[in-house]
Amino acid sequence: MPEKTSLSVVVPAYNVEKYLPKCLDSLLATEGIEAAEIILIDDGSTDGSGQIAEDYSQKHANIRVIHKANEGPSAARNLGIKEASGRYISFVDSDDEVVPGLYKRIVKMASDAGYDMIVWDSDLLIETEKSLANRNKNYFSHGGIEKKEKVYTGKEFVETLLKNSGDFVATVWLGAYRKSFLVENEIFFEKGLIHEDELWVPKAFINAKSVLYIPEDIYLYRARKGSIMNPDTKDRTEHVASLMQIYPSLYGYYDEVLADDPELRELMEANLTKRYLHMIYRFNICKYGYGKKIDKKLLWRTSRRIQDKMMVLLLYIYAH
Questions:
Q1: Is residue 228 part of a domain?
Q2: Calpha distance 39→62 (Å, rounded)
Q3: 247 and 218 within one domain
Q4: Residue range of the domain that includes 249
Q5: 128 pLDDT tier (thresholds 50, 70, 90)
Q6: Where is the domain boundary, 223, 245, 275?
Q7: With a threshold of 0.90, does the pTM exceed it?
């Protein structure tokens, strides 16, 4: 590999021996990928993932493997940012895939594009469990924005999404990010968190001066049982602890960095409250002893939808 390349693809891997070959094969089938580097970070896997990574690296000069003790995806992605030699960094989860015929454009653009972020949409790869098969096909698409290629500021992009659809997608693998933009703005992942994208993505958008949106399903997200987002275990202690760190901290962040943009701050806070309330009930957060720590007055003040107000009122009854 050359010392510098246009694109670094960071792939954290932990116990994904069933899916890792499919992920890597989709990347390797992308035209021009040999000019990019693929950084495989084996995050302390206890199955065959580490050996699969080594096997691929021996066959492909552009694949580099880093083995480390298990610390979770945040630490693995931070290491990927540090080690990346590319102008742009793209994150791919090791149980997902890219669409080679479309991803090739990202590989090509990375050599001379000047945007802070390049973002796209995703389709779903759904396993057969009924609870997963009902997922919305457009779940990870940027709804509420014109389906045409266009450049925005990060704030404009998020504001457009929130005004037109009431939501935005907070997933790191829907974009390629200029490395110097991430480093200069200190946009790194908080170690030890689950759902770390929820904290990272808003900060990236708010700080981005230029975002190119490509309305194509370039990524394929695999909805599967046993993943971080769809865990097998009923014990959600780690999930809840992370969420109770992420959401309250974002209110403070929005107050600080959006002080001169009250309209966007109000939109971001209302969306944050909607997400927060969804997670409170989805993960039964009060069951884990966080009822008194939930700032119900803040949730009431920042909620905009009637259903959100009703959910806050219920918290006054049950969240003790």
A1: no
A2: 8
A3: no
A4: 237-313
A5: low
A6: 223
A7: yes
